[in-house]
């Protein structure tokens, strides 16, 4: 649970902070403070993992512990590959779509 990729940001629409986890893009947690949003999403992920273990479902591997080759036709440092993978997961698009969109903007 501690190795997952968490993000807390302000949600103007909700008027609260929102806690997110890139590996579980369908989950979120709203709270009045950043600390409570982070605690809320972490607890939610922990509960979901317990449920998945109980039902025998495959638990997502943390993005930060996956091995990245650093290649996708163009060579980039593995850290860039990891960062783009996290951004793609958070945006709910494929890695290829994110990279293609980024490359076409420049």
Write the layout of secondary structure elements.
Elements: E1 6-11, E2 16-21, E3 28-31, H1 34-55, E4 71-72, E5 74-75, H2 78-91, H3 95-105
Antiparallel strand pairs: 1-2, 2-3, 4-5
Helix pairs in contact: 2-3
The chain-level mean pLDDT equals 93
Structural class: alpha+beta
Structural domain count: 2
Question: What is the count of β-strands?
Answer: 5
- Please report the number of helical segments: 3
The spatial strand order of the largest sheet comes to: 1-2-3
Query: How are helices and strands ordered from N to C?
Result: EEEHEEHH
For the termini, the CA-CA separation is: 37 Å
Largest sheet: 3 strands, antiparallel
Description:
The chain has 106 residues and is α+β, with helices and mostly antiparallel strands. The protein has helices spanning 34-55, 78-91, 95-105, and strands at 6-11, 16-21, 28-31, 71-72, 74-75. The strands form two sheets. It has a three-stranded antiparallel β-sheet. A hairpin with a 4-residue loop joins β1 (6-11) and β2 (16-21). α2 (78-91) packs across α3. The chain starts with 5 loop residues before the first strand and ends with a helix.
Give keywords.
44% helix; 5 strands; 106 residues; alpha+beta; 2 domains
Short description:
By secondary structure, the chain is α+β, with helices and mostly antiparallel strands.
